Amino acid sequence: MEPEELLNEGRGEASKPAGDSPLVSLRRDLKMFSESIHEVAVEIMVEGLSKYPIFVAHQHELKLGELILDRLELGSDWSIHASTLEEFLEVGIVKAELKKRFIENYKNPKDFMCVFVVVPEGANFVFVPYE
């Protein structure tokens, strides 16, 4: 999947019942890998790559960021890529004119992981506290 495809709005597909939500398995996977994700976030900031690490959660092929947790290798439901606000600006997921608003809404990366969740219906940012 290319970054441009992430910007597609709903595709007219019927919504799944709440019980079938993939977000239940995402929450479980993020909890299980919280420490590893936190370590990568700290590394991104300490190395000066970005003040705004972003983790991309998906269940299919994706060309964005760097793969850090592969669902197929780990037997989990979600793969996680590490990225940054700078990459999101570069590929146009976050528009330059919305950069300031994104930064204002970005939660403390020492306490929260910023997760860009990609599902067939679209994609969105969520902030999840580290365990």
Structure description:
With 131 residues, the protein is of the alpha+beta class. The chain has one domain. It contains 5 helices and 5 strands, in the order H-H-E-E-H-E-H-H-E-E. The protein has a 5-stranded mixed β-sheet. The longest helix is centred in the first third of the chain and has 13 residues, at 34-46. The N and C termini lie far apart (30 Å). Residues 1-18 have low confidence and may be disordered. Residues 1-20 are annotated as: Disordered.
Task: Describe how the helices and strands are arranged.
Layout: H1 23-32, H2 34-46, E1 53-58, E2 66-69, H3 71-74, E3 79-84, H4 85-91, H5 99-105, E4 112-119, E5 122-129
Parallel strand pairs: 1-4
Antiparallel strand pairs: 1-3, 2-3, 4-5
Class by SSE composition? alpha+beta
% residues in beta strands: 15-25%
Major β-sheet annotation: 5 strands, mixed
> What is the straight-line distance between the termini?
30 Å
Domains (count) = 1
**Unreliable segments (pLDDT under 50, ≥5 consecutive)?**
1-18
Strand order of the largest sheet: 2-3-1-4-5
Helix content: 25-40%
- Which radius of gyration do the C-alpha atoms yield? 14 Å
Shape designation: globular
Rounded mean pLDDT score: 86
- Number of helical segments with 4 or more residues: 5
Counted beta strands? 5
Question: What order do the SSEs take from the amino end to the carboxyl end, as H and E?
Answer: HHEEHEHHEE
